[in-house]
Amino acid sequence: MTAAVARPVEVRREADLRRIRAVLSTVATHAIAIAVALCFLLPLLICLVTSLMTQQQAGTGALWPSPFAWHNFTDVFHDMPFARDLWNTVLYAGLSTIGVLLSSVPVAYALARMSWRGREVTFMVVLATMMIPAQVTSLPLYVVFSQLGWVDSLKPLIIPSFFGDAFSIFLLRQFFLTIPSELTEAAKVDGAADWRILRSVVIPISKPAIAAVGLFAFLYAWNDFYNPLLYTGNSSTSQTLAVGLTTLAKSSHQNAYQLQMAASIIFLAPILVLFFFAQKVFVEGVTLTGVKG
Amino acid sequence: MKHQPSHTIARSCLVAGLALVTALATACTGGGSNKAAAPASVIATDASHAPTSITVWSFNTLAKEVKAFQDDLGRLHQKYPWLTVKFVPGKDDAAFAKAVAAGDPPDVFISTAPDYVGQFCHNGTVLDMSQYLKLANIDVTKTFPAASLVYTQYQGKQCALPLLTDAYGLYYNKKMFAAAGIASPPKTFSELIDDAKKLTVKNADGSIKTFGLVTRTDYNLNANIFTGVHTNSKFYDAAGKATFASDPGWANILQLDKSLQDFYGAGNVQKFVGQYQPHSDDAANAFVKGAAAMEYDGEWHIGEIADEAPNLDYGIAPFPVPDDQLSRYGVGNTQGTVVYIPSRTKHAQEAYFAAQQLTTDTTFLTTLADAVSNVPSTFDSLKAWDQAGNEHWKAMIDILTNPGSYYKQLTAAGAQDATAWGTFTQNYERGKAGDLTAALKKFDQQVNTMNAQAGQ
Amino acid sequence: MLAGPARSVKGAEARRSRRRRPDRARWWVVLGFLSPFLIGLAVFVVYPVLATLYYSFTDYQAGSYQPVNWVGLRNYRTMFADTQVFWVAVRNTVWMVLIMVPIQTVWAIFVAWILTRIRRGALVYRTIYFLPAMVPIVATALSFIVMLNPVGPLNHLLSDVGITGPGWFSDAAWSKPSLVLMALWTVGNTMILFLAGMLDVPKSLYEAAEIDGAGAWKQFLHVTLPGISPIVFFSLLTGMIYTFQYFTEAFVASGSANPILSSNESIGYPQDSLLFYTTEIYRQGFQYFRTGYASAMAWLLFLVIFAFTLVFIRGSRRWVYYGGAR
């Protein structure tokens, strides 16, 4: 048999084989992907079903609630100061997001679009502050905040965010650097000052990046545990949800898994809703943190 | 612009920073140990007084306990209308110390345990109440059982007052004892080991259904088995040096722990602890569930069992003593809630007045004891308490009033020595301590260093 | 990259600026833009870092009225001396840095690689894989405590297939692996980075490799991996910096597995297997009030992270330089 003239049957068989191989590989890939997806979903599912179990059933290894205890979701509002914690968390996350954006955008602009001596050093300082562990600063800061009478309030959590946040500055700078210079040059020729360029050119173009940074700041505050633990951990008025969830078992002397899970569901629901509506922003924001190879 | 702004700023930041550091370091330390002016008098109970409002912090978080305190303080206000108390629950020792550091302490602080009495006393954080007590004609030795003075005094200073006491005993399941043919709870270590073995029930597959007694240090309140009282050991000798290597009692109690663990197998004990530790205080507790025939626990467990398993047929006995110390049988580890007055409170007189009422008024103590399932802490209130006849409570009161009962000595290092000892015993249980004698010697050094650094 | 040089502008303005470098921003404008950050830097970073340094040479205790003594290097000596607890914390932290972070990175690469192989439904898969990264850490830790409790759902599922599950968070031998599992679950952010990196690798390289007869594994090894190596370095670096400061997960896991004690008292539970460097600092500083000693520990951590970062960046010549003048 010469290679040049292949018989139609053989050609078809080869094509069939290739198709079968392609189908098989697709099936295999999807099988792996589905298995991994199940691993990722399992903890959330367990969290969800446990939140609907009774005290007798929760934590016993049962996989399906019987009976369904929907009252867990109302119980958490009675058994812990849930509404108050939720409100504090919203306050903390909301206000500190505003603070981070207001203070970080100008700094990032100065680092990315203005030329001045000491700029690189300043940027290095920004990067360096990202590496300082919270534990290094928290001991003296605690003393300062308590002398100011801010402990047991949300002030130590919110006010610092109005003085720039290194991570946000870094992200915004990365994005501002990618703005083509023609756009700002045009404004410069008109004699617009930096402040105007920032407001009328840079900020409108950077909306996605600013949204991502805002989201990250919000998430950071929503998740934050160490600072609220330190400053509001024993407070009867300013506790946040992250800390409140961990003291639920201790304050009732009952290890009520179902209540912890119900509270966790309410705690993570807003974040998941945000995520579904703004997944694109999240993904772009995360990509912004990376360094392109 | 000739000079470089960022450098100037950095330099001024540094200068400002350093200035701030020194300023604050002097400000918040205040310098000098605290010598609160000795009071000339105390507020008489029948005198009128200018209306004063004070803040009382407590560790309690349970709703019924918080309510009991609020009721009590409400009664105090009714009795003495000039005194208004703002009650703040859910504060621990750390929160208190932080508030003191911040210069904004409460007027009275009620702490769950006496671990920090030594530290707060040594550091001048809290008031020495001796002078106040003297002026108020209160003789502490005639008022409070000796066991509760061990943990409220430090180097002769009365830095705290006991408010309700905790005693620890051995809870035992009477049904299981009867089934195993054991007539009375064990009195000695060897009896304890024998009984624990007899009470152990295995499943068909060889796994353990019921444990006699699990003594692993980090389970439930077992750490209190190792405070020394059961072998007549003290953490420190007269010179204040650690005795873990020199006193054979320590190795003795560790040996008891090891024999029980070896009998069950470390893996089985681990399973038990993993399953039941999260439920130490709730309805899934191992003793309530019948997974353990005996359990070492504090007296508040009586209240928990009453809530969770009212039909459980159980008794309470003192924890056994070494075979050669049978005459000491009946002693137990005792500690309790303590009341502090921070030394820099602006209302020392009123704070002491409130503290004295809280800690010595029989009605306060008995109602509070009922609400939080603790033992009242004065001789008078113990006599007057309606629960004193109940067999469970009686057993705990006997342990508490036994002259041989005590809590470990307090030091300026606060809770550190007990925590370090807990870590040591856990390492020993995991077979990581190596040669015990050498390890205990090294541990002695560790604790001595700890105390030396705390300024002891 | 930099903003390009301004076109010359006519007039006095231009002459004045030509005396210096062109396009220099006026310093007071820069200062205006920077002012919030500079104030924050002074108050919330520079001052506390220096204060901690000062404390670390004293026997200062928060809440104490004892005079503060300068004790020189005593706190640092104590750390390295016989306090075994310090070394336990160091060992546990190093374990996490050297074991958890690489496993996490490999897993993130694997998951991202799966996503590149999927044509249909990629968005759904990506959403599911990314979702857990959004769950607040505390909620994650609590969920895992429930899922991994010794008689809980996962061990129940395992026993159905004949495996006796371990005690997870309650067993000193398994508590750190449990945290690793938790870290694998929340790998979404790193995964997105790798995915972006993989999609950036030119198709032509893959085609060339295919012509050379390289299979999927060979292609991954010789095309994909080199293509994403900067991201591997980046994620290892940030992962390790994060893990040196690992606090919340450990604190919550220990506290929830042991509800009988307060969270502060259960630091390290079970049996100090979850005692990490930062939780030990927290315990020394805010539980024992040894502010001086805790400050010394904190400073050492700062130095270690700093040195580690420098070495890591030096050691990886591929490191992408940040923008700015070169």
TrEMBL record, chain A:
Q: Which residues form the ABC transmembrane type-1 domain?
A: 86-278
Name this protein carries in UniProt: Carbohydrate ABC transporter permease
Q: What keywords sit in the KW lines? A: Cell membrane, Membrane, Transmembrane, Transmembrane helix, Transport
**Residues annotated as transmembrane:** 22-46, 90-111, 123-145, 157-176, 197-222, 257-278
Query: Known InterPro entries for this protein?
Result: MetI-like (IPR000515), MetI-like_sf (IPR035906)
The record's annotation in Pfam families points to:
BPD_transp_1 (PF00528)
Question: Topology in the membrane?
Answer: Multi-pass membrane protein
Source organism per entry reads Jatrophihabitans telluris
* Lineage of origin: Bacteria, Bacillati, Actinomycetota, Actinomycetes, Jatrophihabitantales
The family this protein is said to belong to: Belongs to the binding-protein-dependent transport system permease family.
Q: Does the keyword NAD apply?
A: no
Spell out the subcellular localization from the entry. Cell membrane
From TrEMBL, chain B:
Listed transmembrane segments: none
UniProt keyword annotation of Ribosomal protein present: no
Spell out the coiled coil positions from the record. none
| Domain of life of the source | Bacteria
* Iron-sulfur keyword on record: no
Give the signal peptide range.
1-27
**Which Pfam family, an example, fits this chain?**
SBP_bac_1
Keywords, A to Z? Signal, Transport
Q: Which family does it belong to?
A: Belongs to the bacterial solute-binding protein 1 family.
The protein's name in its UniProt record: Extracellular solute-binding protein
From TrEMBL, chain C:
User: Out of the domains of life, which is the source?
Assistant: Bacteria
Q: Where in the cell is it found?
A: Cell membrane
Q: Which SUPFAM superfamilies match?
A: MalF N-terminal region-like, MetI-like
Keywords of this entry: Cell membrane, Membrane, Transmembrane, Transmembrane helix, Transport
Give a single Pfam family match: BPD_transp_1
What PROSITE patterns does the record tag this protein with? ABC_TM1
Which stretches are annotated as coiled coil?
none
Give the family per the record: Belongs to the binding-protein-dependent transport system permease family.
Name of the protein described by the UniProt record: Sugar ABC transporter permease
